[in-house]
Amino acid sequence: MAAPGNISWTFILTGIPDLGDNQEWFSIPMCLLYVTAFFGNFTILIIIKSDRNLHQPMYLLLSLLALTDVGVSLTTLPTMLSIFCFNYNQIYSESCLAQMYFLHAFAAMESGVLVAMAMDRLVAICDPLRYAAILTNSVIAKMGLVIGIRAVCVVFPIPFLTRRFPFCKSHVLSHSFCLHQDVIRLACADTTVNSVYGLVAVLMTKGIDSMFILISYGLILGAVIRMKANDARVKAFRTCIAHICAVLLLYIPLLGLSVLHRVDKHANPLLPIIMADIYLLLPPVINPVIYCVNTKQIRRKMAQLFTRRKVVFHTNATQSVNVH
């Protein structure tokens, strides 16, 4: 019997089907991923906040990226823990819609931050003399505000459009979290409006963002080719490596997941699950590593932070031994 759209329903989340009742075996690597993501991103936030020399456009945008990664991790954490640690796979409609909203909103924010970072690299390489005048801290703050408002407004209608559906088919979702395209496929009603708006929302965020990123790197590539000194070319390229890796880490799994959901209906059902987990779990884990490895200032500050803590710990331990 079809449930009216205004009555609460329950969905069944899917962990990794091939594991069956042994989902708890995946809890250890999953928890390690979350610990690594939180530790890495909060460390970057602490380093940038504590050092006024890093209150520059590039590092402020990096802190925004770390914040969005933390947001994505916090959004997926409750259902992932409940499935893999406590073997509980049910989620009520209100919680599902809330998780859906925040997942898509934070993903849109992350995409917007990557565009802002591409613009930062474009100005730094193509017009370095005016970099400080063009990208001031107030401009970065306004960019962050626009990125947040855009994500909130574009994703806002999706939960309300989804809530009106009756769900009389299977209530089993394909993932360990609620995604819009996964939920509407279970609806017993015409989902054309949701499908069209979902496509429009993707085009308004990730579609436009990917276009701007491609244009930015086309201009950057042209500027690098025109440089006469090889050292300048290598230096310019190195400043872009971390950002290029972050872009690929977000967009490749996203494109793969979109293709699997919309085109290949006969693909292995495990593929979209793996792609969705990569899309939402790996960027928060890998992004801090990428930027720590490729950004000398962050790497140096992190080394100083842990060296200082090690010295403090050793001093306290020595004093404790002397007292006793």
Name given to the CATH homologous superfamily: Rhodopsin 7-helix transmembrane proteins
Strand content: under 5%
Round the Cα radius of gyration to an integer and report it. Answer: 22 Å
Number of strands: 2
Task: Please tag this protein with its features.
324 residues, Rhopdopsin 7-helix transmembrane proteins, disordered N terminus, olfactory receptor activity
Nutshell version of this structure?
With 324 residues, this protein is mostly helical. It has eleven helices and two strands.
Question: Would you write up a description of this structure?
Answer:
With 324 residues, this protein is mostly helical. The protein has a single domain (10-302), classed as Up-down Bundle (Rhopdopsin 7-helix transmembrane proteins), CATH 1.20.1070.10. The protein has helices spanning 27-50, 57-84, 93-126, 131-134, 137-155, 157-163, 180-184, 192-226, 230-262, 270-294, 296-323, and strands at 10-12, 90-92. It has a two-stranded antiparallel sheet. It is globular. Residues 1-6 have low confidence and may be disordered. The chain crosses the membrane at residues 25-48, 60-81, 101-119, 139-160, 211-229, 241-261, 273-293. InterPro entries: GPCR_Rhodpsn (IPR000276), GPCR_Rhodpsn_7TM (IPR017452), Olfact_rcpt (IPR000725), OR51/52/56-like (IPR050402). This is G-protein coupled receptors family 1 profile domain-containing protein. One of its GO terms (cellular component) is plasma membrane.
